[in-house]
Specification:
Distance between the termini: 42 Å
CATH topology of the largest domain: D-Maltodextrin-Binding Protein, domain 2
Radius of gyration: 20 Å
Order of helices and strands: HHEHEHEHEHEEHEHEHEHEEEHEHHHHH
CATH architecture of the largest domain: 3-Layer(aba) Sandwich
Number of helices: 16
Shape: elongated
CATH class of the largest domain: Alpha Beta
Amino acid sequence: MLLGIRLINSARLGISIISAVVLALGLAACGGDSPSTSGEATDGEQAAAGSDLSGAIAIDGSSTVFPITEAMAEEFQKANPDVKITVGVSGTGGGFKKFCAGETDISDASRPIKESEIKLCEEAGIEYVELPIAYDAISVVAHPDNDFAACLTVEELNKIWEPDSKIDNWNQVRDDFPDQKLSLYGPGTDSGTFDYFTDAINGDEGASRSDFTASEDDNVIVNGVSQDEGAMGYFGLAYYEENQGKLKAVEVDDEDDSNGEGCVAPSTETVDDTTYQPLARPIFIYVRKEAIARPEVKEFVDFYLATDSKELVSEVGYIPMAEEIYTAVQTRFEDEQTGSVFGGKSTVGVKLKEVLAKEEKAE
């Protein structure tokens, strides 16, 4: 198994005290290692083969996208030990603040850039290329001993999480649920996961009750829910899969879905076949256009988007995009197409293939 994957558990456990992970340290000794032992370089390895590269790349943003970027950076540095890559975890919103101030080269984001952030970048003269890199599913989780909330409807989730909600007992959610205190855990307001969940469930990005335990550190949510039999929380699918022994995934029933799928659990399969709605979403990296002129940044992003690098996406628990979408995204980067295809709007229910195809026709 890849070095980057072996290190992910420990990286996540320490994420709350890490402001930036300097991934280059100690990797020079591994410079001869490679995922392939056949002697024939893969596409991804060729993209990372510029061993004469040097420099530094600063990345910050989403805790959801962090495991993918961390794994990509570790693999890239095996062939390029003189490139120092730091990956911070400030949340999607916090990452964009740094990015639009010109402090970082790449911003990890679990949602598209907002209108206010677009304006912030414009005022600072920061141009960027928006690159979808994978799919994720927001997982609603409960304590493993919870044997009654196997499935919740979008309406019930809204009832729990809507602004000014007074729901604090499970029997207020459904009459046949037990008289048990309901404790809530979720991402902080700088998180793209918070933005997407509130948009999908409450119909308005950022609209949420405020009396829950909020943290940009997903481990706080894991620990809180796993230690409280009446607790419920939400975060990305990869973090649920990493902690399945401590948590139970709650299935979601999108009653407004015309496909009528009923209760659906979050998984790679249900995200891929689009049945897990409305909590499946694309995730992104944003690359500062000025930084693309630097060879180390250009080659790192080429490696990130290379066909064989999709294996790293799967290894850390996310869902790779279809080949045709990867091709469109690679073209977008090669052409340095700036701006956002979403224009600061919601991506709930959006199909990337259709959005990217529409942009190509418009050009």
